[in-house]
Amino acid sequence: MAMKAKRVVGAALALAVLLSPLTAAANPDKMSKGEHRQLQDLTEKSGGTIQIRWDQKRGTPSFISGKLSKPLRGEPMEQAVKFMDTVKSLYHFDSAKKTFRLRKVQKDELGITHVRLAHLCNNIPVWGDELIVHIDKDGIVRSVNGEFTPDMGKNTERIQKPTLNSDQAIQKALDEVKPKQLDGKPTAGLFYFPYPEPDVVTLVYVVTIRDMSAPAEWKVFVDAVSGDVVHKYNNLKFKQKR
Question: Where is the signal peptide (predicted)?
Fold first, then answer.
């Protein structure tokens, strides 16, 4: 019988979640001592029970829930960074302070603070990656969820600087989608783009082009080194489908 991706883990079964066949990281034979130790620490902090779901492609947790920390002091970003440093082996990064940038802090009517963290590598954001740390009114982390691509430092050693500038990337994108009626000036931002697999990383400009005639809001991914268009989609259609 296939094992479920989401599991409730008891203290005596702290590593049972690692038996999930969904990812390499979920295989106990392939996990490091640090990963084993951090998962066990989380389980003990939570009084013997946590919930965890693994990202099938990335091999990192997409969801962890329980009483995941002691009360943490400081501003929400400080609390989130302190917590993420306690699980860095599970997500495969070296330093939370260098790896994350605050994207947004929200507090709901129940007093839960939701800290949205952007993933950085070489001080460049990783497209599509975001972790949300949920902290209760006592400063205890209750859950973390989102997408995080591991080992970005290793996969970006040779692509740390663009050869194109943003204006050149915008022109490449305009040539690609050929808008008939621009709605405002196109914009471009520099990102690492792990696509089509997490370990295949390209340094890209993500160019946003709004075309009133379509209508369309194009996201065009231009390789910041070669100038090739590696991906594109109409974000307006995507928004309408959701």
Answer: 1-26
Cα–chain center distance at 205:
18
Q: 215 preceded by cis ω (within 30°)?
A: yes
Listing DSSP states for 95-153 in one string gives: -HHHHEEEEEEEE-TTS-EEEEEEEEETTEEEEEEEEEEEE-TTS-EEEEEEE----HH
pTM of the model: 0.85
- Please say whether the structural domain 166-241 has been given the CATH code 3.10.450.40: yes
List, in sequence order, every residue forming a beta bridge with 197; answer none if it has no partner.
none
Strand partners of residue 209: 218
Tokens representing 108 are 């709901």
Residues 93-119: pLDDT tens digits? 999 999 999 999 999 999 999 999 999
**pLDDT (0 to 100) of residue 21:** 31
CB 25 within 8 A of CB 59: yes
Region 6-153: CATH code: 3.30.310
